[in-house]
Design the sequence.
């Protein structure tokens, strides 16, 4: 537990990590699991145990859902929209106050770099809370002029209201643990729901800390419950629970399918943000320097552990050699190390299992005949590091071109026409994001129109904002998180008729 003793950690974080066990948060109380089981979460930079966490299973999910249900008829339901706004701003204040220790916690628990945690995850988390803090006072219905053909001349008042959906289950992955938690919690609370959050088993800590901050902000007990545990136990119990009204899930497409099946019992509402295999396309008229940076960042941000990673790079032939060389040069010189070290540019993968999985894909790519230009192996020494890996001479049919690897592996391929780029870019089961680099404004918009993806980035990559909708086409899922469209996910519409005759 070297990292825990590390003097550079903020005092608040040292105190948090020093707890003998990290308990579940249910009904405003920190509790052991009913089974009394715990599990270990690791520091992926060292492979050593970072903390012990109570392991929720079905019995704890039962308690958490009951607490959330009860909170919906307590003081929470009587708060005015302006009071909900104030609470969300207060939570944002606390996240900003704790930004240093939360950023460090993310580095330790999931391996991201302190630079990315401080400049990306934390400011975005606060921004999401503030964006959704603005919504409670703006969620309203409409009056609709209605006609009733079998009652000529009759007069009615018809209006709609938007009500909370109820108990929201949120199952989230390990790549942006705090951000994903906030992305679900902020709109759910803005709309007046109560939440049961199941963080990924690899990264349970920041969600638990967030739950504590919710209580400190003044959210009533039971409005936010946090139940760390494993997918097939805690996750499946939440997905199948008959008293969960809506489930929001981010994770793999395979587990997404399980979630759909498990949710069928009570027909709970679903929003799914699943995998990706994004094309990042460079035309010969692009700004080469910007594109080179964008391709690298697109593929390797967060060690490539992003559903939006630009893992299929398509370069128009005249630029193919020079851009491939630029990508390889960056891949070979990037500084890898523990995320907490401010000099580190790329951290470890989240777990041993993920490291093995990624190395398996690399081995498969070599076996299928792709050419390895950089990386291709783990870093020697402790921790779950894999060198950033660049393949060329790959065929679209190879697994490294079709399947989501969720690690630092990119394939670079040349193309000769816009039509070819579009058809190859779209030849995937996924459709989360796509990137286009071009100096031709007409081409940019033509491409944006042609690409089948929920987000298209032109001359930029990996940009997100609380106000911009986020979600996928095809097997990348359905529903749009963030933005005004999240309000539709976390409210239900009521239609009221009043006879005025
Ligand atoms: P990844 O491959 O990125 O780990 P997963 O889809 O396996 O993504 O996991 C994302 C989240 O889904 C995690 O919180 C995990 O515990 C949860 N999960 C995994 N399997 C199931 C399941 N069968 N039912 C519900 N949740 C699950």
Sequence:
């Amino acid at each position: 537990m070297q990292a825990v003793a590390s003097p550079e950690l903020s005092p608040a974080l040292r105190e948090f990590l020093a707890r003998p066990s990290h308990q579940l948060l249910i009904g405003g109380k920190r509790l052991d699991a009913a089974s009394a089981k715990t599990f270990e979460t690791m520091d992926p930079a060292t492979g050593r145990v970072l903390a012990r966490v109570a392991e929720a299973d079905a019995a704890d999910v039962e308690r958490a859902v009951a607490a959330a249900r009860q909170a919906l008829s307590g003081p929470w339901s009587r708060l005015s929209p302006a009071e909900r706004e104030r609470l969300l701003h207060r939570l944002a204040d606390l996240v900003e106050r704790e930004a240093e220790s939360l950023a460090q916690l993310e580095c330790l628990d999931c391996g991201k770099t302190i630079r990315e945690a401080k400049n990306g995850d934390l400011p975005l988390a606060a921004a999401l809370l503030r964006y959704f803090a603005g919504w409670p006072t703006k969620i309203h219905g409409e009056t609709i002029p209605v006609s009733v053909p079998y009652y000529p001349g009759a007069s009615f008042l018809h209006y709609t209201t938007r009500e909370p959906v109820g108990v929201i289950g949120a199952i989230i992955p390990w790549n942006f643990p705090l951000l994903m938690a906030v992305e679900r919690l902020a709109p759910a609370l803005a709309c007046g729901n109560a939440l049961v959050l199941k963080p990924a088993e690899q990264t349970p800590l920041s969600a638990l800390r967030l739950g504590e901050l919710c209580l400190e902000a003044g959210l009533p007990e039971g409005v936010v419950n946090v139940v760390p545990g494993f997918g097939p136990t805690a996750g499946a119990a939440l997905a199948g629970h008959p008293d969960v009204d809506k489930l929001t899930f981010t994770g793999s497409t395979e587990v997404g399918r399980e979630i759909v099946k498990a949710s069928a019992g009570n027909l709970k509402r679903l929003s799914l943000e699943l995998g990706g295999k994004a094309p990042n396309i460079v035309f010969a008229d692009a700004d080469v320097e910007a594109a080179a940076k964008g391709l690298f960042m697109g593929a390797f941000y967060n060690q490539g552990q992003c559903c939006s990673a630009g893992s299929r790079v398509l370069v128009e032939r005249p630029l193919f050699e020079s851009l491939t060389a630029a990508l390889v040069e960056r891949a070979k010189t990037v500084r890898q190390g523990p995320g907490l070290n401010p000099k580190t540019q790329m951290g470890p993968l989240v777990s041993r299992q993920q490291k093995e999985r990624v190395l398996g894909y690399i081995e498969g790519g070599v076996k299928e005949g792709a050419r390895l230009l950089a990386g291709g192996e783990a870093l020697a020494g402790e921790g779950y590091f894999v060198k950033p890996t660049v393949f060329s001479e790959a065929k679209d049919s190879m697994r490294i071109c079709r399947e989501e690897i969720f690690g630092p592996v990119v394939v670079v391929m040349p193309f000769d026409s816009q039509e070819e780029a579009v058809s190859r870019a779209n030849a995937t089961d996924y459709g989360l994001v796509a990137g286009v680099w071009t100096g031709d404004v007409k081409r940019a918009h033509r491409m944006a129109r042609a690409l089948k993806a929920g987000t298209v980035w032109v001359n930029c990559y990996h940009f997100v904002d609380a106000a911009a909708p986020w979600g996928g086409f095809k097997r990348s899922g359905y529903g749009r998180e963030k933005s005004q469209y999240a309000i539709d996910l976390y409210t239900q519409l009521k239609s009221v008729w009043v006879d005025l005759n």
Notes: The CA atoms of residues 46 and 383 lie 4 Å apart. The domain at 11-274+477-495 is CATH 3.40.605.10 (Aldehyde Dehydrogenase; Chain A, domain 1). The chain has two domains: 11-274+477-495, 279-467.
